[in-house]
Amino acid sequence: MSAGLLELAERAARAAGDLLLQRAGGPVSGVASKTSRTDLVSDTDRAAEALIVGMLRAERPGDAVVGEEGADAPGSGEVRWLVDPLDGTINYLWGIPQWSVSVAALDPSGPLVGVVHDPSRGETFTALRGGGARLGRRTLRVGPGPPLDEALVGTGFNYVAAQRARQAAALPAILPAVRDLRRLGSAAIDLAWVACGRLDGYFERGLNPWDWAAGRLLVSEAGGVVAELPATAADPVGCIAAPPALFGPLRALVDGAGA
Length: 259
Fold this sequence. Notes:
Blueprint lengths: L1 H22 L8 E2 L6 E2 L1 H17 L4 E4 L4 E2 L6 E8 L1 H5 L6 E8 L2 E9 L4 E6 L3 E4 L2 E3 L11 E4 L5 H14 L5 E4 L3 H10 L4 E5 L3 H13 L3 E5 L8 E5 L1 H14 L2
Parallel strand pairs: 3-5, 11-12, 11-13
Antiparallel strand pairs: 1-2, 3-4, 5-6, 6-7, 7-8, 8-9, 9-10, 13-15, 14-15
Helix pairs in contact: 1-2, 4-7, 5-6
């Protein structure tokens, strides 16, 4: 069953990616704010989600489906889909080719399959629980990781001003302790890049389940470590990911900085 779920997830992600590429750079409609006036959604996000949800429901009518843009279809079975039809909407709307489609299926034991599709680069990352992670046909395996001070680390910032201020306050402790930080704008791609070695680590607060459900499986199936950053009184839940030897030092740094 799992292989069939992965094939469906990849097919749906690619179909949405084709739609998004067709509309990229064209007229924008239906733009609205979400968590803040700088956190946007458009009709293109909604159309991509509707396409994915329609494909999933047509072939798996008993599965639950939850999407970032409002899809919330109940299911009668154990499989639940988490869909982010356009992770990196701001990049997409500004013409920056750093955005993705993320589709994951979960069961009571956690993520079962995950797909992160990067239409701009023509790259598709896939993972199957117990079956490894791949970029196209290439199997992904992370190494132990570099020393902390040589690590290139990805992160992201919240669109709520008060939370961004707290994130910024943590940077003076983090930035000097690593090689450098990258804020690229798509959590799903950040996690996929940890899995394939383009980033040595990644952390971010303010994520929703659909932001990292597929990416966390990519990292873990590639041999990396992924953990939730628990919510605090001031900040929402997040995640942190890195190769095994780097994970502990990076986690200690992030926790010590209050990030």
